[in-house]
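Two entries, shown back to back:
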Amino acid sequence: MRKVIIISIFLLSVCKTGYGQAQLTTSSVNAITYQQWANQDWEALIESGNSALAAGIDFYYLRYRLGIAWYEKKNFHKAGMHFNKAYQLNSGDDLLREYLYYSYVFSGREYEASFLDHGFTSGFKNRLNLQNNRSVKQAYIAYSYQPGASSSEISRFDFTSVPEGYQTISTGYHLLNIGLEHRVGSRVWLHHTFRHIQKNYYLYNNITDSGIRNPNDYIYLNQYYLGATTLIKPGLDVRFGFHYIHLLNYETTITSPPRPRTIRTSVTGYDLAGFLSVYHRFNYASAGLSTSIANLNNATQYQQNAIISLFPFGNLNFYTTSVISYQSEKKVSGQWRNQFILNQKLGLKLTGRIWAEADATFGDVLNVVSNDGSVIYNDPDVTRISYGLRLHTILSRSLTMLLDYRHLEKESNFVLSQISTQLPESIPYNTFSFSVTLLWNI
């Protein structure tokens, strides 16, 4: 009798399971999720939708409603995924396109958003308050200042019995940066940047046992950066380009006896850097790989970078970005210098219009290429550690102001011009940099 009861209970449970599965049809899911959408019961709608997808049921309105549920919960990564699935089934719904566009915007997927609005009609752009001519994506202007080493740190130069060679220590720089990004096709954007930098430094140069000191030496750099981004498909893009650096400085020499004289002659040169990157965006994460080659400061640099960004809540309220770089530098002497560099960034939304980003870099930053080739660290003084804070403030719909402060722990080293076992000690010093940027989203 007991076996009969157990078998009966087992059969009953199987029947109930089978009955429950039989009721999970497209019609029933459509009715249930419609009611949950009408009641704005987002949690129940997400649960019902996930169960339906797990059972192999997938249709336009299910994806649409799931997208709205995640959108209302401000998880724009998940919302964009479902809206994109619905958009593939029916791209003619204006409200759906609006939801998908803002899901991309609010999750930081600017290239997907820009690609989508390229196909909007003039009337639809007016409805969203977007400019009809969107060939120019953004423009910006920035100014940066760094004071360099203090006079007390510079006074640590030891000029006694030094071999032939030279040493510099930064006494500051001024930087002006102007940039523009524009569309050249439905899937391709070009990024132009021009920078003018004036670097000041203290110079000690020992030539044939004749020491030259110039506390007010300087160098000018004019830099041009051209980068291209191609959106292969939503969530996948490739970036490549180059960075041209033109240098103008003054070389100090001493004429030979009997009338030794100090002569300064202008010297120009140029350095180049090229890069290639690929990025793939997932739900809650973005990953990238990049490589670059450069010839900065009379050496050749090969660099590989792995980038990963995490968005735990599916939006820009909180995010992290980690960049691990491996650099191999070959000097003129044929010697190789290999190192790892780690950059860690943490972003947090403070108010509706203000974001804060804190970051730190560990490793010897010398002749390093970063930010997809747009930033070059070619200062001869090595940066051992740096950390800083950036504030993004939205001033209006199209204007954003960025304020950056960075603390730097740097080191000045003597450069030999002949083989010698005697090398003066390096000079460590601390400094900071400050920059302000105005960014127009056009």
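entry 2 starts here
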Amino acid sequence: MFLSTFEKQLDGKRRIVVPQEFRALAAGSFDGVFCFPSIEADCIEGGGKALFDRYGSLIDELPFGDPLRSALETTVLGGMNQLAFDTAGRITLPESLCEAFGLTDWVSVVGMGDRFQIWSRDGFAAHRAAQRQAARDGLAALRNAQRTATAA
């Protein structure tokens, strides 16, 4: 699993060192990762072949011509980049993705189980605070629903 959060600096060529733990998990048909614009947030989403296969399976479940299938194909498959590791364990982020998400110097690489996200450092700080509050509120609502169900 991709776990933890790392702050990394992009160099002048938009290269970032991928944490060793992430490189080991991404092992697959090629020595690198798959990255694309996240559907959930304003960041890059990435992972290994397992993540690519998971999205492929999800897309294949939808009938050809379905608007959701087309949207996923365009966003995920059309936005997909295969980024190979160099000898130092770095990947070079595409300029278009860096520009789209304001990645200029320091970035946050966030493990999310079977995937990871790459954020601008400031963007992730705001997102993390909002997600923490959403987790608190959601957990409280879940516990209240469980108590109500148990009492009934």
